[in-house]
Amino acid sequence: MTNPQLEFFKSQIGKTLDKTPSAAGNWLAGKLLAIEAGYIEVQYTIRPDMCNPAKILHGGVASLMMDDVIGMANFVAGSEYLMTSINLSVDFLSSAKIGEELIVSAKLIRSGSNLNHWEAVITKDSGKIVAKSSSNMIKTHLKLKDLGF
């Protein structure tokens, strides 16, 4: 059985993600590097409008990056229902400056009938971890096909 959501995102590998259903994700303008069922990698370049007054990556933007990447990966994970975040736990471990490129990766840890558990990490080119998170996505009553997906 083909997964049209996964096939669409695979066609976007190497491209800027600025035409997705997520307006906030489009603002981030990440570049999709890899996607499979249960795994994703997106690259982001830190811009001034992503930073706090100290000119380092704002924690809310870092959280948005991980939440959006988890959401994309969960969208292609194979559920016929829309799933939504019910929590996001974030640890901020180091800073990132304007102009730095970051990789946000997420992997599916556990998939259940109603709940998917994800972990995500933001890393610098050097391998240093900027932040990490975990999130649970819960199945809604809305079918993806009824939403036009």
TrEMBL record:
Q: Which UniProt keywords apply?
A: Hydrolase
Q: Please list the residue ranges annotated as the Thioesterase domain.
A: 56-130
| InterPro entries linked to this entry | ACOT13 (IPR039298), HotDog_dom_sf (IPR029069), PAAI_dom (IPR003736), Thioestr_dom (IPR006683)
Output the Gene Ontology terms for molecular function: fatty acyl-CoA hydrolase activity
Q: Name one Pfam family in it.
A: 4HBT
Ion transport as a keyword?
A: no
- According to its UniProt record, which protein family does this protein belong to? Belongs to the thioesterase PaaI family.
Family matches, as PANTHER family: ACYL-COENZYME A THIOESTERASE 13 (PTHR21660:SF1), THIOESTERASE SUPERFAMILY MEMBER-RELATED (PTHR21660)
What protein name does the entry list? Uncharacterized domain 1-containing protein
Q: Which organism is it from?
A: Algoriphagus faecimaris
